From TrEMBL:
<protein>
    <submittedName>
        <fullName>Glycosyltransferase family 4 protein</fullName>
    </submittedName>
</protein>
<dbReference type="InterPro" id="IPR001296">
    <property type="entry name" value="Glyco_trans_1"/>
</dbReference>
<dbReference type="Pfam" id="PF13439">
    <property type="entry name" value="Glyco_transf_4"/>
</dbReference>
<feature type="domain" description="Glycosyltransferase subfamily 4-like N-terminal">
    <location>
        <begin position="18"/>
        <end position="131"/>
    </location>
</feature>
<dbReference type="InterPro" id="IPR028098">
    <property type="entry name" value="Glyco_trans_4-like_N"/>
</dbReference>
<feature type="domain" description="Glycosyl transferase family 1">
    <location>
        <begin position="170"/>
        <end position="301"/>
    </location>
</feature>
<dbReference type="Pfam" id="PF00534">
    <property type="entry name" value="Glycos_transf_1"/>
</dbReference>
Length: 360
């Protein structure tokens, strides 16, 4: 199948450091290529992929002195329009930016929504484009959508099976990873670790928008003896960081659409202690891959019982539910549902021929 993957330009694919959407786009793109599909990736020029790369910007916008990122994305959308005839299906990861033209193209397409949807201003755009085929990254994410729209499926994120290895949790600390922001609640994580009498290591970025929050609410908490602030880390360090942790603390205070760090921890065999918000009950199997809690006291009790969680089973749960293979298979089902039945028979015929060749 000829598939277009259209990524935002803010980060490269995959991102060099933080960048959830672009990481998912990368994992999905590479898995589809591995499965033999003809994939074209529209992304920043510094992206690394085995697919065909189409880009109008040399570097990710985060790395450039860009005053108007929308200008770059509009140029990207025009490039997508000019190539649209080449594809069987087009998969957008660019929120609603493409809606005015993708709704007019006579081409199967779908959009994965990666962010929060409980924003009043979204009423206008999603009401106007209510027929756009949309994919959620959790069922919980849909609750924030202010209007009735055309949901065609939910597909959970996935990670390559060989990206992380199971760790032993022998680092005598708990981990917090992500962003220093009010909705991620690093203050809760620090308090939980303190009351449990265990060290906490914090690997997180501080966005410009969150600098004031960090200075007012978090900086003084970081000075406590049980806290070690590592800063933002990349993939090369994340596996060891999570694998040595006794648990990942995920004490969020917002309707998390998915929470990639939860499955990253699971891939390392590290159980997750997460507050019951957003996607958490869909991702965490209570008592098997972690504990779902509602307050600090419950979090401390969960830490006291963390050794009851079998790290081998945590890893097994990840492999069964959150691999790139599972993610790609679920998206392929959606792609197939969108294309005309005549083309679908052609794809099935090609797949059968490939299977016969592999057996001979």
């Amino acid at each position: 199948m000829k598939i277009a993957q259209i990524s935002p330009l803010y980060e490269s694919v995959p991102p060099k450091l933080y960048g959830g959407t672009e990481r998912v786009v990368s994992y999905l793109t590479e898995e589809l290529v591995r499965q033999g599909h003809d994939v074209t990736l529209f992304a920043s020029g510094d992206s690394k992929t085995n697919a065909k790369l189409v880009s109008l910007t040399e570097d990710a916008l985060r790395l450039k002195d860009v005053q108007d990122p929308l200008a770059h994305h509009i140029a990207q959308m025009q490039e997508v329009i000019e190539h649209a005839h080449e594809f069987d299906v087009m998969h957008f990861h660019t929120d609603y930016l493409h809606f005015p033209f993708s709704s007019l193209l006579n081409k199967p397409h779908l959009t994965t929504l990666h962010g929060r949807l409980d924003i009043p201003d979204l009423v206008y755009v999603y009401h106007k484009f209510k027929k756009q085929p949309l994919v959620s990254i959790s069922d919980s994410q849909r609750k924030g959508m202010p209007v009735d729209v055309n949901w065609i499926g939910t597909v959970y994120h996935g990670l390559p099976l060989d990206l992380y290895r199971k760790g032993e949790g022998d680092g005598d600390y708990v981990a917090f990873i992500g962003r220093i922001s009010p909705e991620k609640r690093p203050d809760r994580a620090i308090q939980i670790a303190k009351e449990a009498g265990i060290k906490i290591k914090i690997a997180a970025k501080i966005d410009t928008a969150d600098e004031d929050y960090y200075q007012r609410m978090i900086k003084q908490l970081m000075e406590q003896p049980h806290v070690e602030f590592i800063g933002e880390i990349g993939e090369d360090r994340k596996g060891e960081f999570l694998g040595k942790a006794k648990a990942l603390l995920f004490p969020i205070d917002w309707p998390e659409p998915f929470g990639m760090v939860m499955i990253e921890a699971m891939a390392c065999g590290t159980p997750v202690i997460a507050y019951n918000h957003g996607s958490v009950p869909e991702v965490i199997d209570k008592g098997e891959s972690g504990f779902i809690v509602d307050n600090v006291a419950e979090s401390v009790r969960a830490l006291e019982n963390i050794d009851l969680i079998d790290r081998n089973k945590v890893r097994e749960t990840f492999e069964k539910r959150f691999s790139t293979g599972v993610m790609a298979r679920n998206y392929m089902e959606l792609y197939q549902s969108l294309i005309p039945s005549t083309k679908k028979l052609v794809f099935i015929s090609k797949e059968l021929k490939n299977q016969v060749r592999s057996l001979s």
